[in-house]
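Section 3.1: Structural characterization of target chains.
Under the original work plan, the team committed to producing a structural model for every single-chain target entering the pipeline before any wet-lab resources were allocated. The record below documents one such target. The sequence was received from the expression subgroup and is listed exactly as submitted; it comprises 156 residues.
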Amino acid sequence: MPKEIERKFLTTNSGYRQVAKGESYKQGYICRLPDKIVRIRIAGNKAFIAIKGMLHNAITRLEYEYEIPVDHAEEMLQKFCEKPLIEKTRYKVPWGKNIWEIDEFHGDNEGLIVAEIEMPSEDYQFELPPWVGKEVTDDSRYLNANLVLNPYKSWK
């Protein structure tokens, strides 16, 4: 079964921008329940539907993701997804043997920047880049699906 094993961190500076170009992402949720979500995403000029299962623990969950036509995704985002949509710029940054994904959020989540690393196993050892700070993997507020109802702007 396909699994997503991921850890999340806040950033301390924008040094990652020196080595990566950002890509625009827009995503929404058709289903957003504690044990499952269905997400629609447009990333640049491609679109995807993802089904994610309950977290086995803080860092591992089932994930099925498939490419779909962009025009279908646009229509689903408008007609079926909860609002507001999640809008962000994603930077994919090589560091050591890994690719880090840094999301700079916009709209109701403006000001939030999260760095993520996907790992092959839960005990995988990796080097932290100098622009990575506090780990927030265990804080459910940082899950994209939760930022719809509890956006970053309301945390302050």
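The two ends are 39 Å apart (CA to CA).
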